[in-house]
Design a protein that fits this description.
single chain, mainly alpha, 84% helix
């Protein structure tokens, strides 16, 4: 029994790469061999699947943070930069149009 629990612990370390189907197969084999009970098997599957999801979310978060950090350090032109420039351009165009209108009034 202790050996089976140890195996499950080791499996959990690399679980994020495993699918729920593979986890079910592994636990079913342990139940069939009598290493763990059916109830313990169900609990183990649930816990391992939850841990897998947590690890996947954590990995995705870390990757996203690294990407954002790399982008912020690089000299990239972002969508936010584009929107800011578009806003400034619109303001400038409005100001130019106002100046043209004033010029037309002044020189008539």
């Amino acid at each position: 029994m202790k050996e089976s629990v140890r195996k499950l612990g080791l499996i959990g370390a690399g679980l994020w790469a495993m699918t729920e189907e593979k986890v079910n197969e592994l636990v079913k084999d342990l139940v069939d061999k009598g290493d763990i009970s059916r109830e313990d098997g169900k609990k183990a599957v649930q816990e391992l699947v939850e841990e897998s999801k947590k690890q996947r979310i954590d990995l995705e978060k870390k990757i996203s943070e690294k990407i954002q950090d790399t982008i912020s350090k690089a000299d990239f032109f972002t969508k936010k930069d584009m929107h800011e420039l578009e806003s400034r351009l619109e303001i400038l165009e409005e100001e130019v149009q106002k100046m043209k209108n004033k010029e037309k009034m002044f020189f008539k």
